[in-house]
Amino acid sequence: MTSLRTTTDKDTGVAVVTLDRPARLNAIDLAMVAELSALWAEFRFDDSVRVVVLTGAGDRAFSTGLDRDAEIPQPGSPYMLDDPLVAIGPKAAGLWKPVIAAVNGMACGGAFYLLGEADFVIADETATFFDPHTTYGMVSAYESVLLAQRAPFGEVARMALMGTAERMSARRAYEVGLVSEVTARGESVGAAVRCAETIASYPPAAVQGTVRALWSAQEATRTAALSQAPHLITLGNQPPDTQTHLFTTRPPNFRTR
After folding, report:
1. Which of 127, 155, 161, 218 is spaced 20 to 30 Å from 108 by Cα?
2. What are φ and ψ of residue 17, in 5° steps?
């Protein structure tokens, strides 16, 4: 059973990719990891796809990150880490076609691997953004690095350090530049598709060259910062059994700003 839904309009050149596990709040399991990696690679060779819109099924969440039931064995060294999410983004796969994220409901934790590699983000008014890692005794490394490339340092630091106690609203995300547009409830995908259709009508080589240029502007800093993530995570994370205990026993109290 596939965990993605993909529709492509060959006339406009726009593909809509939907994370399709709404019963699990579109959490990313290992099957979805493999499907996303394969899909981005496929799009590299599909000239009929010129722009991609990425969203989540249902109205509760874009994605809540890595599925907590996914079992990922780890090496016993602080200098090695197996993180399946590092391969789920379009830029990690070498796809230099524009990707627009349309966010509905919650986007948290590992969802930032995807949002961090989108070219811009559109959110409906129900969207909220938060990073639960510190609450659960885990280091926010990849997520914080990716977000720090597209939002002010202080806002990213507040989100990462406040954990589950606070959620950033769509309006606040717009104010700080994480989100480029806020729509009415349920309208983020439509707004993203309209942007995508406009971009897809332009010469592809010019568009893709612009995408590559934009990302090259921050690539050196981003690459250097991400190289520190694996051992920071392995040194700073609580043992897995402690993480699970925190995850299941702490009440989901939070405020939205």
Report:
1. 218
2. -110, 125
Cβ atoms of residues 3 and 19 within 8 Å: yes
pTM of the model: 0.90
Q: 73 pLDDT exceeds 80?
A: no
Helix 204-227 × helix 229-236 angle, to 10°:
40
Digit-coded pLDDT (tens) for 162-175: 999 999 999 999 99
**Spatial separation of the C-alpha atoms in residues 225 and 227, rounded to whole Å:** 5
Query: Exposed (0-12), middle (13-18) or buried (19+): which is 63, by Cβ within 10 Å?
Result: buried
Tokens representing 176? 């700080």
Specify whether the CB–CB gap between 135 and 165 falls below 8 A. yes
Place of tokens 């983004």: 89
Three-state DSSP class for 117? coil
For 150, residues 6+ apart whose C-beta sits below 8 A from its C-beta are 116, 177, 178
Q: Rounded mean pLDDT of 106-122?
A: 96
- Per DSSP, helices labelled H in the chain are 30-45, 111-115, 142-148, 153-162, 170-175, 188-200, 204-227, 229-236, 240-249
SS3 (DSSP) at 56: strand
Structurally, at CATH architecture level, domain 4-67+78-184+227-256 sits in Alpha-Beta Complex (3.90)
Mean pLDDT of the chain: 90
Q: d(Cα 145, Cα 125) in Å, to the nearest integer?
A: 25
Tens digit of pLDDT for each residue in 126-148?
A: 999 999 999 989 899 989 999 99
Residue 248 pLDDT greater than 70, yes or no: no
